[in-house]
Amino acid sequence: MAELKPYLQLTRPANLVTAVADILAGMAIAQFTFSSFNPAFLVISTLGLYGGGVVMNDVFDAKLDAIERPERPIPSGRVPLPAATMLGMTLLFGGVLAAALFSFQSGMIAVVIAALTVLYNRFAKHHVFFGPLTMGMCRGGNLLLGMSVLPESFQQWSFVALLPIAYIAAITLISQDEVHGGKRRTLYIAVFLYLVVLLAQLYIAQTQGNILFALPFVLLHAWLIGRPLYNAIQNPVGPLIGKAVKAGVLSLIVMNASWCMAFGLWPIALAVLALLPLSILLARVFAVT
């Protein structure tokens, strides 16, 4: 088990739970009822795509991490770089394959997500604009992967995937200053992007006639991400910015539960929300960022 733990650390297990929540939220938006067929392949797909993506993040950052984060599995020598590369590529390929086994459309979405993941890790990550945009597109694609469970609904609601792009762009913007501290201007931009997502959820819930049910979920989400971000704005140092990033990532589960409730599927909303304690527990054992 001790030999396996560094490899698990590379996959960010707490974050993997949020990826599963994306799929469930996408299926809820598509009004999937779990009565027609088993969507397990989509869940397996997102685990491979997200896990492979974060592993490749550490692969491409190995030299930088040797300076800034030498305790990570690759620079510390606990995971050899070739082994980490093989793990990341295998997970990405497995994610694409699982999606393709579900449907052709799902497979194509998975191919795009995998490509965006490599593009982000190799080229876009440290760019102030394209980094957040590309990472946001990865998460938006993950929501689309869940929606692809029902192609007819996918066409109607695919625009909703723009909102996770804004949300993840906010987190990515914040995370760029996680090591050395940052500027309040960046944090204010993140506040604006967060507000766009929260207000859009309330608007869509209103149009679906579910505003009273969705409101508590949206307010919970706002509190979870707002408190640490407020603290970071007051004192934009690395540790507080890191907490704001961690809160943003883990609270993806609450955002996804809010989507489920906005579309009136409260059993799925509660099931997604139940993933939050698991993600928090895993975050105490494995790093989120």
Short key terms for the protein model shown above:
single chain, 289 residues, 0% strand, 15 helices, mainly alpha
Explain how this protein is built.
The chain is mainly α and 289 residues long. The chain has one domain. It has 15 helices and no strands. The radius of gyration is 18 Å and the shape is globular. The model has no long low-confidence stretch (mean pLDDT 92). Pfam families: UbiA (PF01040). It is found in: Membrane. It is a multi-pass membrane protein. This is 4-hydroxybenzoate polyprenyltransferase.
What is the makeup of the main sheet?
none
Q: Please trace the helix and strand order, writing H or E for each element.
A: HHHHHHHHHHHHHHH
What proportion of the residues is helical, as a percent range? Answer: over 70%
Q: What is the end-to-end distance?
A: 22 Å
Average pLDDT figure:
92
How many structural domains can be distinguished in the coordinates?
A: 1
Report the uncertain regions: none
Total of helices: 15
Q: What is the number of E strands?
A: 0
**What would you report as the Rg, rounded to the nearest angstrom?**
18 Å
Strand content: under 5%
Principal-axis shape: globular
Helix/strand structural class: mainly alpha
GO cellular component, one term: membrane
Organism: Dyadobacter koreensis
Keywords: Cell membrane, Membrane, Transferase, Transmembrane, Transmembrane helix
Protein name: 4-hydroxybenzoate polyprenyltransferase
